[in-house]
Amino acid sequence: MATLIVKGPDGSEREVALVKRITSVGRDVENDVPVADPGLPATALHIHFDGRDYNAAAHERADMTVNGKRRTAWRLAPGDRIRVAATELFFDPAPRSVVTARPQSGQRLLALETLVRFSERLLGATDLARLLDELMDALLEVTQADKGFLILLEDGEMSVRAARNVARETIEGAVDRVSDSIIARVVQTRRPIVVADALHDREWSGSSSVVNLKLCSVMCAPLMQKGDVFGVIYLGNDNVVSLFDEKALEALTVFAAQASLLVQNAILLDGLRRENLTLKEAVSSKQYGDLIGAGASMREVYRRIEKVAATDISVLVSGETGTGKEVVAREIHRRSGRANGPFVAVNCGAIPESLLESELFGHVKGAFTGAVATRMGKFQAAHGGTLFLDEIGDMPLALQVKILRALQERAVTKVGDTRPEPVDLRVVAATNRVLEEEIKKGTFREDLYYRLNVVAIQLPPLRDRGEDTLVLGKYFLQKYGKEFGAKVRGFTPSALVAMRKYAWPGNIRELENRVKKAVVLADRALVSAEDLDLRPEILEPILPLAQAKEEFQKRYINEVLERNAGNRTKTAKDLGVDPRTIFRHLEKLEAERRGQPPPPDEGEAP
Ligand SMILES: Nc1ncnc2c1ncn2[C@@H]1O[C@H](COP(=O)(O)OP(=O)(O)OP(=O)(O)O)[C@@H](O)[C@H]1O
């Protein structure tokens, strides 16, 4: 073992045994040989032992001279004098003293120090692969090995989870290189092995890892949990024959014993993190912007929004009250090129007819009694953005003409004014009426209908959304639980059943309100059907027998269809009816959904 005599700028001298394969020298205390010389770079040079010779290499831009000549790299000979800034280093190939580069740290201590650092980082780290790489890098440092592998046994298969060399790089193709008899022995005996001189060892010189990795010296220790081997740490040295000795094996054994627990924890934590992520993804896949729901009908709605959002096409959203028509309109706006512009909502049904025109188009001062100042309307306010005309079916006929004109001419005129003002907006209209019926009745203009209904989005009532009712219920429970700091955690099983059974005439708005009220008033962790005011009599009102029979039949066919993933032929077979019965059932549902009269019954018995 060679010695380096270090002379600092203050004339102090010390001897350092070059025990490591790479010894760093510099101003920084992290170096193996720190020197208090302000002129030195943080790391000035490395001394590298290649198994035969010691070589000095200047670090980056360090100005190094050897025997008075500038050098960047130099194979050291006895008596060579290296100088960087005011620091001098003398090389002596003979061992001199017992002072090592880290005098206070024996290998065992170093191993433990490394483990402590590793365990501290364990909780904060999110990347298991990187963490294991760092663990192996630290171990290479401790044991002065050239190559290190952390191998786990998963379902009887070896999987190399970290393969590192002394340059802190990943060794490619590691699995093929290390799968061999040395590891098999360690796994079988559960005891560590050191093969000090592998090339001359009769038993191991032919081992594939020794040959493939051109190793001269090998150590391998098991990673154990509750008496079982779940992996191994394998270290190899390809340069210094017999570098590993019993002491190095002892350091590795200490390290492996402690590392077993930490690696197990790291794997467990990693698994939990992944699981958490998958759960989060599952939850977020039930959400599209602010819209919650993952059932087939809502997925079709999302698909439509996705298609039309980026265009300027008019959209007509229809559905019963509280089904989320305004949320859909906002989502279209949010995903459009107008997202930075305003979103202006007008409830056409809530404004008295006499005020509606001025509300929509604005008015000039003095236009009518009470018009004390000029005011712009909702059309002008929505300039550059989206105008949401809610309850468009309630719009009086006279105003329907004016709206149509405004949309065609892209201009509006204030009440009492004669000058049209250009407006640039996109219209999303909504209705809970069946506008086709209104057209037939003569209460809605067909030309306006076609202008608004370029693309139609039909929102299903909540009672037809299947599992989404529960998904929405849980979403509101979480939302309001958080908002009100309530201690509720979920629903009782009977509350879940009640939520599925109830017809929800007020749809999502009603569900939201019932859950919100229950969360505010609940004093237990689980919200019950009573907390939701879902009493048996409203769940199952008494119906005339014929209607009850029909309701039951409808629900039962739906359930069997769902169980058969929508397969109509199989459903008909399971129920022992003609397939036409199932087709007619679906036609009826569709007509109901559209608010149309049911198709004529052919009188066929199910
Ligand atoms: N898919 C959904 N996910 C989450 N919340 C929803 C969803 N649909 C509706 N809501 C909520 O339900 C309530 C009613 O929604 P919204 O006002 O959009 O319904 P609407 O169909 O426009 O009602 P109306 O016809 O009475 O105007 C709102 O609080 C809304 O946030």
Describe this structure in words.
- Keywords: ATP-binding, DNA-binding, Nucleotide-binding, Transcription, Transcription regulation.
- This is Fis family transcriptional regulator.
- It comes from Anaeromyxobacter oryzae.
- Residues 291-520 form the Sigma-54 factor interaction domain.
- InterPro entries: AAA+_ATPase (IPR003593), AAA_lid_NorR (IPR058031), GAF (IPR003018), GAF-like_dom_sf (IPR029016), Homeodomain-like_sf (IPR009057), HTH_Fis (IPR002197), P-loop_NTPase (IPR027417), Sigma_54_int (IPR002078).
- The protein has 606 residues and is an alpha+beta fold.
- It has five domains: 3-92, Sandwich (Tumour Suppressor Smad4); 107-274, 2-Layer Sandwich (Beta-Lactamase); 291-458, P-loop containing nucleotide triphosphate hydrolases (Rossmann fold), CATH 3.40.50.300; 462-539, Orthogonal Bundle (Helicase, Ruva Protein, domain 3); 545-593, Orthogonal Bundle (Arc Repressor Mutant, subunit A).
- Helix content is 40%, strand content 20%.
- It has 20 helices and 29 strands.
- The strands form eight sheets. The protein has a six-stranded antiparallel sheet with strand order 2-1-11-10-7-8, with no helix packed on it.
- A hairpin with a 2-residue loop joins strand 12 and strand 13.
- Helix 7 (296-309) packs parallel to helix 8 and helix 14 crosses helix 16.
- The chain binds adenosine-5'-triphosphate.
